[in-house]
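Sharing in case it's useful to others searching the archive later.

Someone asked me privately for the predicted structure of Zinc-type alcohol dehydrogenase-like protein, so I'm posting the question and my answer publicly. Question first, with the sequence:
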Amino acid sequence: MRAIAYSKSLPVEDPEAFIEIVRDQPEPGPRDLIVKIEAVSVNPVDCKVRKSGDPEGEPRVLGFDAAGTVVSVGTEAQLFKPGDAVFYAGSIMRPGANSEFHAVDERIVGTKPASLDFAAAAALPLTALTAWELLFDRIGVVPGIATDSRTLLIVSGAGGVGSIAIQLARALTGLTVIATASRPESAEWVKSLGAHHVVDHAQPLGPQLAALGHPGVDIVLAFGGTKQHAAAIAGLVAPEGHIGLIEGADGFGAAEFGTMFQKSVGLHLELMFTRSRFETRDIEKQHAILDAVSGLVDEGKIRTTLTKTLGPISAANLREAHRSVESGRMIGKVVVAGW
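And my answer, the predicted structure tokens:
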């Protein structure tokens, strides 16, 4: 089978940043599915892994968002059968999905939304899992409770995770959603997704929130620029509030931790790969989350965050997708589709 890999950690501008290779089609493990890949999406994690150093041994295949069709299943598979259309985010511990066929544990796979094509579906899994797990599993917001009147500040609202977090919060909670965006086009995007208010993260956040009548916020989800906004986040979060992070906590210094300690703030770290990396007891929760997201899409309550499609899946187009993500100016998600 064909696959797109990298053998050296090179700048995305280098024509050799990605190469096409040929590998044997994988065999399924007991709970695995073998999926014929139709579309993949690129996330910041793809770029971070590629830039972190040369792979050990053979070239490494990336790709942590995929949609396709099941062609075979493992001996203990229970959730899917050949012919099922699926979408998922995969495991960072296994080869990625930038290949014609891919092996994935069925417990982290969801049923593709019937109302979306493969490209539109591939934009959703990693970001939806990240947003859902952080908001509902880590922070403990209860989905379906429309009487929750707390305020939610989403920093970097127009990015991939922010774009789906806004929608999940609006569809499943009563939270007042405030998103940050620094350009007219990104501000319009987050408004279209349902944000109640938009503030500019290129300007001081405190005065803008105070002008909206929200000098403090109950929950902050920081999806970008965490180090830049650490002091503001620590100052703005309400006593007994919550801060959710996906970039780690090293952006917060002693002063910020002191401020948060005085307010008994809950600090929540989220890595979407934790359940698959450690095969946690609740690993199958990711299957349930993706099926719930699929249902919300088909009910018209949330929509795909796809904004850019490239094709076919090739070294050149994956380079272009990585370039878009690394620009820091992406709105929504970029997908590479078809062979």
